[in-house]
Amino acid sequence: MTAHHRSPWTLPQPTRRWVAVWLRNLLVWRKLAVPSLVGNIAEPLIWLVAFGYGMGALVGSVGVALPDGSTQPVPYLVFLASGSICMSAMNAATFEALYSAFSRMHVQKTWDGILNAPVTLDDIVLAEMLWAAFKALFTATAILGVMLALGISHSPKLALAWLVLGLTGVTFASLALIFNALAKGYDFFTYYFTLWLTPMMFVSGVFFPREQLPGWVQAVGNALPLTHAVRLVRPLFLDRWPADAGVHLAVLAGYALAAFWVALALTRRRFAR
Q1: CA quadruple 219, 222, 225, 230: dihedral sign
Q2: What distance in Å separates the CA atoms of residue 38 and residue 18, rounded to the nearest whole number?
Q3: Mean pLDDT estimate for the chain
Q4: Radius of gyration of the chain from Cα atoms?
């Protein structure tokens, strides 16, 4: 079966040429690195200052559930910081894999130009996913640096949190590329943010303990990838090991692998038309 007639659901078959596509994105981004960084970290830091210091002064501390069933009082600023950095990684990966990738694919026709070289569509989609994940990790690293400077946490386990944030970027970049493949225009992405990302932020334990939510909402939250990212990162901020870390990592990795496969299949079908 030739490449033109194979099923779009064939397993991904990227080559090492994806590196060239990734480097192309890096070279273009270098010219806009500073404004891009400011844009990516400004909003989460505003959230952190406004709610962490403002509301934190009113709330004081919140109880975080421990594996043994007890609760540990945690300053609200630390609670919010550990959740918001996961949200920031999610948003950075999503924006890059939606708006920027769509511009390169549909508006600027960059992907069509690249396909004239000995590069496959599988290479391009993989490079776009890893590029969006890199942008997420870059943003999270900058925010983490600010949090360290503010003394929010000095846990040595934050190095592992950094790796989790990288996986979070991979997961949400893969999910966003599904909608990138389906989009007819930028307005389509409003559905993704309104119906998927925004509700997820409020049921995944970013802003308040999930234990306060109704049982059925908690059950829904348990199936969402952001919940598992927060459950991994927050204990590391508190210098504790996450409970059921293997389960949370498996869920994030499972989302990433499945979403990337679906995104690639839908992108192949789009380009085959």
Answers
A1: positive
A2: 28
A3: 91
A4: 19
Distances in whole angstroms, Cα of residue 49 to Cα of each of 53, 92, 117, 147: 5, 19, 47, 11
Looking at residue 55, what is its pLDDT? Answer: 73
| pTM across the whole model | 0.93
Tokens standing for 66?
A: 């421990």
3-state secondary structure of 71: strand
Cα 135 to Cα 33: distance, rounded to the nearest angstrom: 10
- Does residue 61 sit in helix, strand or coil? strand
Tell which residue, 136, 135, 252, 153, has the closest CA to residue 204. 252
DSSP 8-state code for residue 241: P
Cβ atoms of residues 144 and 85 within 8 Å = yes
Report CA torsion sign: 95, 87, 233, 210: negative
Whole-angstrom distance, CA of residue 62 vs CA of residue 219: 21
